[in-house]
Amino acid sequence: MDRFDNDKNRDSATRATGGHPIGTGVGAVAGGVAGAAAAGAAAGTIAAGPVGTAVGAVVGAVAGGLLGHGIAEMIDPAAEDAYWRDNYSSRPYVGSDASYDDYGPAYRYGVDAATKYRGRSFDDVDAELGSNWPSTRGTSRLEWDRAKHAARDSWQRVSDTIERAIPGDSDRDGK
Fold first, then answer.
1. pLDDT tens column, 26-51
2. Residue 138 region, left (φ>0) first, then alpha (ψ -120 to 50), else beta?
3. Residues 6+ apart with CB under 8 A from 10
4. Where along the chain do its domains lie?
5. Residue 54 above 60 pLDDT?
6. CA–CA separation, 72 vs 54, rounded Å?
7. What pTM does this model have?
8. DSSP β-bridge partners for residue 10
9. Which residues contact 137 (CB under 8 A, 6 or more apart)?
């Protein structure tokens, strides 16, 4: 059985249960935006004053967290793993000598990184991801110069899914 089967709410890097890793990242961004909007509206109301601003920020953060959790349910690490397992061999960067065991960790790394670095482009964090690859690659035989193509691919797939749910170009890829 694949390590992602039946545990959508596990962090794929740490295996910890609880908050969905995608929901945490998306919720934080959405909560910040919603909180800022609510706080700004409250600040504009003289009757509400500072208390209204604080309440607006809390309400915005909670709403953002709920939105993030909803989007997180759309991005299922097990479904992502299944997608890449079925499609990795058709990707132009996959060598004939490689197996999914080599590329799977890179795809999972891209999914996790897309949420951790929400709002940034892959190119912005490529060097940091490359530095951290040796400690996250598991049994993959790929060096970062080969693994990063798979990580970028899965990052883009997750980013596109999120952008369909939250309009805008949050990953600054022009889409």
1. 444 444 444 444 444 544 455 555 55
2. left
3. 4, 16, 17, 77
4. 21-73, 76-165
5. no
6. 27
7. 0.59
8. 17
9. 105, 106, 109, 147
